[in-house]
Write a structure and sequence with these properties.
249 residues, alpha/beta, Glutaredoxin, 6-stranded mixed sheet, 8 helices, 6 strands, 13% strand, globular
Length: 249
């Protein structure tokens, strides 16, 4: 319905479906409820109802956390994985929507720059900043690199700064050798895609958690005043609209 342009009917349908799901809390599949909530949040954002999206996601995130806790204690391995995955999805979307319209958190915890580099987002005020969170093992992340290169080339002279941030996923092995190996893999991916924008490496998952970027890739768009205008998976229509608005402001 939303894709056909009938946003009002689509929104009403999603609201009714989620209301019904809440009445039958344990009779509807958990992942179905998660997807209903995610779709409804997107529908609210599409019509500018950020507060409604945020309030709904707060409630659904709390419900998903309870289900995940129950499954971790009593479920089989598949149920545990499914419950945790659903909870992380809704939790991260809740964080992302909560960031909209607010001054962006800093990225000063980035400890190494494989390409380019910035000291802080504050120094980039007056420019539009696009953050991408990625990982070497994430195929959609690598598919995003050519698109980011093109955005950088097309809009760099209009004030766009592209910053891709990853972290050491293999560092849990606890050895310097594993970190060196992963760093080489990062460089290999960057060189393979001929990346021509900033590439930073964070020491752990804290920065991802701050931006609700457990799911990859995650894009965060920050306007010239340092305010977050978009945070999410990079859904083209919504992202492109906010990008053009930010560049033209």
């Amino acid at each position: 319905l939303r894709q056909s342009g009938n946003t009002t009917d689509g929104l009403s349908t999603l609201e009714e479906a989620l209301t019904e799901a809440r009445k039958t809390r344990f009779e509807i599949q958990f992942q179905t409820r998660i997807q209903l909530a995610m779709s409804l949040a997107d529908a609210y954002l599409e019509i500018g109802e950020t507060q409604k999206a945020s309030e709904m996601l707060v409630e659904e995130s709390a419900f998903a956390e309870k289900i995940s806790q129950i499954m971790q204690a009593t479920g089989n391995p598949n149920q545990k994985r499914s419950a945790m995955s659903g909870y992380l999805q809704i939790r991260d979307r809740n964080i992302q929507v909560g960031l909209l319209g607010k001054v962006s958190p800093e990225i000063s915890s980035v400890r190494e720059w494989l390409k380019g580099g910035v000291d802080s987002l504050t120094e980039l005020r007056g420019r539009v900043v696009l953050l991408e969170f990625w990982a070497t093992w994430c195929k959609p992340c690598q598919e995003m690199f050519p698109k980011l290169n093109k955005l950088h080339q097309d809009y760099g002279d209009k004030g766009l700064e592209v910053i891709a941030i990853t972290r050491h996923y293999m560092a849990y092995r606890g050895t310097e050798e594993s970190m060196r190996e992963e760093r080489q893999l990062m460089l290999s991916v960057v060189n393979q895609h001929q990346v021509d924008f900033h590439i930073g490496v964070a020491p752990d998952e804290a920065l991802q958690a701050t931006f609700g970027a457990n799911g990859l890739p995650t894009l965060v768009l920050i306007d010239r005043e340092g305010i977050i205008q978009y945070a999410g998976p990079g859904e083209e229509q919504a992202f492109n609209k906010k990008l053009q608005q930010s560049l033209n402001s």
